[in-house]
Amino acid sequence: MNPAEEGRGPTAKDPRQRAGLRPVRTRLAVVLLVFCMGTVAGLGWLVLRGIDAFNTANSDNLQWVLAQTDVEFLRFKVALLEAQRDPEKLAAVRRRFDIFYSRMSTLENGVSFRRLRDDADFDAPRAVVRSFLDDTVALIDGSDNRLEAALPALLDQAVVLEAAIRKLSLAGLTSFAQVSDSRREEVADTLILMATVLGLLLGGLTLLALSFYRLYRVSERQARDVARTGSRMRTIVETTVDAILVCDDRGKVIDLNGAAEALFGYDRTEAVGMNAIKLVHPPDIRAELLENQLRYIREHRRPERSERRFESEAITRTGRRFAAEISLDRADDAGERVFVVFVRDISGRKAAEAELLDARDKALAGETAKAEFLAVMSHEMRTPLNGLLGTMQLLRDHKLTEKQSDLLDQMQNSGRQLLGLVNDVLDLAKYEAGKLVPEQRPFEVSRLLEGVVETTSTLATNNGNTLHWSCSLEPGSVVLGDSRRLRQVLLNLVGNAIKFTRHGEIWIEAEKLTGPGHMAEFRVMDTGVGISARNLERIFNDFETLDSSYSRQAGGTGLGLGIARRLTELMGGEIGVESEEGEGSLFWVRVALPPAADLPAQQEPFGHLRDGAGRAVRPLSALLVEDNEINRFVAREMLKAEGHDVTEAVDGQAGVALAAARAFDVILMDISMPVMDGQAAARAIRSGGGASARAPIIAVTAHALPEEVARFREAGMEYCISKPVDRAELVGMLAAIAAGGTPDGQGGPVVTGARLFDEGYLESMRDLLKPEEVDRLARKFLAETDLAVADLKVAAVKDPHLAARAHACAGSCAAFGLTGMHHALAGIETAAKTGTLSQNALKDLALLWEKSRDRLVVHLDG
Amino acid sequence: MTRILSALSLSATLLASTAMAEDLPAPTGDVLLTIRGDISITNAGDAARFDLAMLEAMNPVTITTTTIWTEGEQTFRGVPLAALMEAVGARGDTISATAVNDYAVEIPREDWVADGPIVAFEHNGAEMSLRDKGPLWVIYPFDAKTDYQTEVIYSRSIWQLDRMTVED
Hints:
Mean pLDDT of chain A: 80
Distance between the termini of chain A: 142 Å
Strand order of the largest sheet of chain B: 2-1-10-5-6
CATH superfamily of chain B: Oxidoreductase, molybdopterin-binding domain
Strand order of the largest sheet of chain A: 2-1-5-4-3
CATH class of chain B: Alpha Beta
Radius of gyration of chain A: 70 Å
Low-confidence stretches of chain A: 1-16, 547-555, 598-616, 741-754
Oligomer: heterodimer
Number of helices of chain A: 30
CATH architecture of chain B: Alpha-Beta Complex
Number of domains of chain B: 1
Structural class of chain A: alpha/beta
Largest interface: A-B, 21 and 22 residues
Helix content of chain A: 55-70%
Low-confidence stretches of chain B: 15-21
Distance between the termini of chain B: 37 Å
Shape of chain A: rod-shaped
Strand content of chain A: 5-15%
Number of domains of chain A: 6
Shape of chain B: globular
Helix content of chain B: 10-25%
Number of strands of chain B: 10
């Protein structure tokens, strides 16, 4: 068998079979051994008995005895013959007789001859001899004379007797030959038996030897395996980077590998016999370890699976502490209990983990910082932009040529567009910063659609488009949802439709969907250029501007649809598009709008003043709290233009101080300011019990989220106006405050009209024309403007002719020096063109007209 | 105890023999045994002759044993061979013993020991005639040990003994 085959012997193939065979073989060997021992014992007994038998001869020399009988009889006979010739020889006869007699007695009585006596061939001649001896004894013992006389007769008898003796000795010889034969056979049998037993013994021993050889081979192979495994294990243990310690039950180190020596800095000779816990762990944590992680050592038990691995701190001989992963178990083999401990230095891993965590935190912080930066930047961009837009509005208070007015219109349009873009970016940044949360407020869908149409109609008209809307929801039904976001989504979609449609039609539809979830679908359809199939996928992505002449022409950030998608997702809804190039597009939005059972539709929180403020604005004392110089300037100018008295404060704290000292009719409060922000300042004013503690406060903010508005109200700011401050809106709000008034406010209009009316125009007109001509023109102007203002007051903001009518009216007002009206109308015209015109601006115009008309009439009459 | 007694009896025998050796009397009755050869003490020229009375005077002992030539246990009385050799001052190492029927055998010195063979003159309390293998019969204590149950020993148990020659 070559060594390779040896490893895969038949026994190696099936361990179960091998395990089963072994006891059988052992039992067989034991049985054989016992049998052999028995055989040996039996044989020994046989041999001993044989030896014993040979040792104790139970016979004399038989042949000699038998031969001597013959010889001694013949000598007796010779003595008889000699005595016949010489009577002196009678004594010899007697001696020879006695010797023969003695010999016969021996044959008859000796134990050795017992078997002869049972033999008839022997016994018959013996009896003859015996009777001769018995008969002759008397003669021998008798006198010499009688003996001498009997000699011839004795000689005759002796001749007869000789034959008998011959027979006797022959019979004896035959018999003893048989005895010899049988004894020889007996010996032969014993020898054969011995040989057989020896053969069996040899066989047994051979089997035993074979079995022992086999056992030897097996154990040799096992020893080789053990040696091989041991050497492999040793290599593994020595090459592993983990430190490995082997300790006894009491924690004494029995052995350790090279890695352990290197890691902890102890020589093998030093380490062996040391307490493992003292070797591995720093002193200050040992007690705690024994109390917790290494509890089982005290409890003298094997660690549970969960207890076999833990992280702890380790220390080297030189005192370097490091994070270590400890993995250990107790081996209970062969009654010897040892702990095998693996120690791994994981300080590197820990450091890498910490670094990774740090990097992630930094990256996240970076992302947040970027989003915040974007939000702050957009916000900051709005401030100067508001300044620009406000200043442009103020510019209209001055005398402008038509050319200048047109340029200003352009500037204002561009400014508003820029503001829209900045707002888009801000929304996006806010969304990315995770600062947007959907809100649930009751509102009417039809009113929402109305608002959207109102806002976009001018723009639609400009592009030669017709805007239609329909709502299949019940009129007046109130639903719950985020109206502000929904409005923005629809504005984006409609704005988009208008952008890509020329001289076409745009439909806005709202429909309540059947099925669960109170889903409502809004559709914005156009007959525009449409979108190619390959572009459909990406139009909702950010910064996606499709490569078409129209889109270039339309411009834009490409954020509109991206924001719409985000807002829809924020509301938990879906947005989608169907389109055919050249035919038009259909954008749809599906959101859940559950019916708001008993809640009335909430009024818009701010900005819109209702019909109640019908009276002219009296001059008010206003406190303007604003940190930004440009904004402060714009607001101040707007207020002053209305004839109000303005006191300025550059931050919240200064505002609070002023409000405490003086009773203001109204306070305009910016929200984000250094030192003290608007909310804190408002709270301080309200709770301070100062002179203006009960004055109405208008929050001026760029970011008026619903929850923020709620907070403003809570802080005591019942009004809110968004930046950029719309002049008409501000004027209207102030009118409402003046009318509804503060509790101490004086009723009734006191119109100073300083800025409302510039007498210069009327004077120069009088210089040019005859008084009756001027009077006629003035009356015509008054009548026309009365009609125009009344018309505008009730006009729909989406009325396409509104801008033109406002424009015409503005021109007449400017001619008669009605600067306020001119500016207001110009604002309306611009607003109408950009679709940002509000109904309130038109209502405010009516108020302004009343005041302006009064002033003009006074002058005309005077 | 028995060993002490036998030792004592042996010394007594030796003492007696020594006493006799100095003065071996002449036989008065029938001479039963004649010893010649390398001996130092004689009473008839170069021979030492013994009658029954002389043997009786040599502190005879009794042996009870079976033999292969008889049936059942037998009692023999006689003088130990060692004592007899002592009495004649035997210097050789071998005894050549011869019977009346001229049977002869050699008995080596190693057999002449205490508790060894005797030269018996009485069998079952009676003197032995020639017919009963007398007058003298060398008897070993066959039953005492198996060493005395061999054919060599049986051949040395010479009966009808009447002569001995001590040889080198």
